[in-house]
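Tutorial handout. Part one gives the primary structure; part two gives the three-dimensional structure as tokens.
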Amino acid sequence: MLKLVIGNKNYSSWSMRPWLALRANNIPFEEIFIPLYTDVKADKDRILSFSRAGKVPSLIDGDITVWDSLAIIEYLAEKYPETRLWPEDRAARAHARSVSAEMHSGFMPLRNECGMNLHRPIKAVPLSDDARANVARIQEIWADCHARYGKQGPFLFGAFSGADAMFAPVVHRFRTYAIPVKPEAQAYVDAMASLPAFQEWTRDGLAETLVIERFETV
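Part two.
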């Protein structure tokens, strides 16, 4: 059986992405949880035992280890083609991979100013111009994908895909930091929030013991 090494569901947006890809597609896997932010050497050593990069997530499939969220999704798409983690249409697939890669490598101001934190009280924070530009670009992506592929289903490319797994943590960030969502992007936010796997991750994250109290209020 596959093994997925993840960090705290409350904090680890990168762990959420492949976890959601697996769970939403009913792919069996063993979840291996290693807490983050503990300053416990044993926890850091456990992460290193799975990946010398020293980060989560990692996917273990026998003697194969994949230690990057997007790379894990690509691996799952190849191993389980029936899940259609990428759209079948070549143009749509290229579009899905492009927006996923943009999410994977970009939007650093928003990441830095609005960290993943399910326990945080819902309230807005002042955003820099760069973070506001990130918010606008993300909603542009959601609205554009919905306009192109919305007739095929409620997600970015109709059916749930790897692109949705990559953008899922942003849905949480928008909620936690009370970021307004334009009407043309709201349908997508609602679809993600209604996804059973998304709801399961959220419940699990809210049930976790808090690690660093100051994270919950800032």
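Part three, for discussion. The radius of gyration is 17 Å. Strands lie at 2-6, 29-33, 58-61, 64-66.
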